Here is the input.
Amino acid sequence: MILNLSEADIAKVLRYDDLIPELDDAAMHSTLILDSREAVLKESGDVILSKAPIFAEAGEIFAARKSPLRSATTVFKSVRNGALANAR
Here is the structure.
């Protein structure tokens, strides 16, 4: 399957063996938003192996502390943690 990342949003949720990456480094170097920085840096092969820069946690977006460009490709990486932890 070929995915055109020029105007895409990708939601990625942890799977059982997530230390094996599913997205290539180019995809991971998009605007990367996570549910929990601490958990993702321990459990996500996609983020750990690509060394992708983290733009924000979802809670930072919800609290309007950060705002991604609407034209950018966005990857949301979740390891099933509370995304609202930083919205306080």
